[in-house]
Amino acid sequence: MSDKKLIIIGLVIFFVIVAFPLWYHFLFHGGKAAPAPELELTDKAKAAKVCVRSTQYMTAEHMQLLDVWRESVVREAERVYVSPDGKEYNMSLSNTCLDCHSNKAEFCDRCHNYASVRPYCWDCHIDNPKEKS
Amino acid sequence: MLELAIKGTKRYYGWMTFLLAVIGAGFLIYLWQLNVGLRITGMSRDASWGFYIANFTFLVGVAAGGVMVVLPYYLHDYKAFGKVTILGEFLAIASVIMCMTFIIVDLGQPMRIFNVFLYPTPNSVLFWDTVVLSGYLLLNIVIGWNVLEAERNNVHYQQWLKPLIYISIPWAISIHTVTAYLYCGLPGRGFWLTAILAPRFLSSAFASGPALLVLLCLIIRRVSNFDPGREQIQSLAKIVAYAICVNVFFFLCEVFVVFYSQIPEHMDHFKYLFVGLHGKGAYVPWMWASLILMVIGIILTVNPITRKNEGVLAVACMVIFFGTWIDKGLGMISGGFTPNPLHHINEYIPTLPEITIALGVWAMGFFILTVLFKIAVGVKEEVRA
Amino acid sequence: MDSSRRRVLQLLGLSALGLTTKPIRDAFAQEEEQVQAQFKKGENALTAQQWAMVINTRAFESEGDLEPLIEACHKIHNVPKLENKNHEIKWIWPEPYHNAFPLKAGRFLSEEVEHRSFLVLCNHCENPSCVRACPTKATFKRESDGIVLMDFHRCIGCRFCMAACPFGARSFNFRDPRPFIRETNKQFPTRMKGVVEKCNFCAERLAVGQMPACVEASEGKLTFGDLYDPESEVRELIRTNYTIRRKQMLGTEPSVYYIV
């Protein structure tokens, strides 16, 4: 093992790079977590009280729900969602979800930005169906 | 064995730096394409495939051509080729990687490429093409690497490689057959709708692949202490000679059927390529050049006097390589799309950014090829010493 | 490296691999919750075994007569208007006879037919070659009503379907279409760059009991209905008129019929 020194230096550099998010966070942000985003509900959403599913389920699984919706609408021609409590909804991101949550910036984006996810839904789906123009 | 690739002469490093620069240029333009879409290419609603897919098609041929050194050695026990099989296998690896890259740069949504495996669709030829290409790549990496390592260690290669080697032979045929099926099974594309397309692809593959190998062998002899051998090069040249003859013959078969039957759907594409149609004919000089190059190639490789002169042979191989590239690369794709199914004529001309990206992919392929050949030649030199 | 150390490393690697299966197990757990909800068709949804269209080309005197139909379609589907011919997106457009029916063009054609404009669109073939070609099932023939549809979420933009379509019915988004949409219909999505698109026989309108936009705008010159319902209006028209289809000899079985 004549290259012991080189190997150790290499390993150190490797771990420094791998651990970048950790030490960067501790050095420059004091190790404190960024405050969780606060989501705003529109009056319409507040009045409705419940979404198509429980709030907890929606927070955790809305992407899976939307994925199942798109599969059903696009491929199976079934566009009506009957929730477990028997209510019916038109499965449409722009026309149903954003009808209540018409404040995309304060509702969708805030959390997506916090989690650093960039869903490409809005490349096609209209994000402000209610605003003029 | 990889360490053999990082010890080289100044010239070796210079070459690699040059390739890296071309790769870099191509990559930068690709980032631009990724950002703004395929509008920076010359492709259109009518010619929906272009330079990328053309080069992909040609390179599948080069990859399949590698089998022309593997087959005689392993099936016919033609001992002389034992020296060069590894070159054929490594050429196949580099070519298949180029093919895959060309497919990726051609996609509108490359980040979704795994949808092909997520939703496997056996009725799509493109699905099978990805399957056979990845399989061929894997086979050649496993076989090439292990056989070379065994040679380095002076032992016989592992027994379990034998069946893989035998599988790799028909597999090579399959990659180009399936690639031809991409085109020749489409209704309403008269230029491609012909059963001779797969055989034509294969014959041009077995001309262009070994022609490139001859050139590479001649280069290796110049820049290293490993001589692939005169007999080997001559045998390869004979393969090239037969294949290019068959290729031109198949082409003439197609020309006969198309022009004797006089069916416009099939004839119009040939007319567009060779004499121009309704005043459009950007490819006319190219197509005639291709035909002339292939005929010169036949004369120079069939005639024993010219074939045995390695200087002339090098010229012949270059001529054949470029002739088949124009035929299969340039003409095959744009000719199939012009005129379009509604008989409008909308010419496809590749743009500069498109060509730069393509050059970048070629440079990447040659980078990989140089690394692999450096290793192979290094091992050969070691063993001989 | 001695063999026992190698063994330990192997075991460590395998256990690490085992940990990665957690998301898969979680996914199975979620399936159960999903089951409670149900999907169904809307109450007004129009259904058919195979939707078909009959175009009475005699009723259209000039290209101008086709304009409102094309406009209606392109407007509600957010089809962009691109200046560059190469990058054009069109779902439905006019063509002269010898381009719409290239194999049927006689040499000395009736002057009236020669000057007539023919509406062309996706034929929603019964045996579609584009569906055969697609490597991801992004374009598919809907079992329930025979519409050839696109799943833009899944399309990888390989354009094999464009090569496979003998009718030139498909367009590719060579660039982001949004800046080129004059007036956005907010009820309908746009497309993104890098995917293929084409006419969808107004699947979104059929789902709520409306006829396709072009049919509605045609004031009776276009007829839409179930090809396999002998009582349907389209069948009545096909029975009583001489109709042709585009490139019928290719065997794709187009569902758009033309009365000439």
Describe this structure in words.
The complex is a heterotrimer of chains A (133), B (385) and C (260). Chain A is mainly α and 133 residues long. Helices cover 55% and strands 5% of the residues of chain A. Chain A folds into 2 domains: 30 residues; 81 residues, no CATH class. Chain A has a two-stranded antiparallel ribbon with strand order 1-2. The model of chain B has no long low-confidence stretch (mean pLDDT 94). With 260 residues, chain C is an alpha+beta fold. Chain C has a domain of 149 residues: 2-Layer Sandwich (Alpha-Beta Plaits). Chain C has 10 helices and 11 strands. Chain C is elongated. Chains in contact: A-C, B-C. Chains B and C meet through helix 5 and helix 6 of B and helix 4, helix 6, helix 7 and strand 7 of C. Strand 1 of chain A pairs antiparallel with strand 1 of chain C, so a sheet runs across the interface.
Task: Quickly list its features.
heterotrimer; A: 133 residues; mainly alpha; 2 strands; C: 260 residues; alpha+beta; Alpha-Beta Plaits; 4-stranded mixed β-sheet; two-stranded antiparallel ribbon; elongated
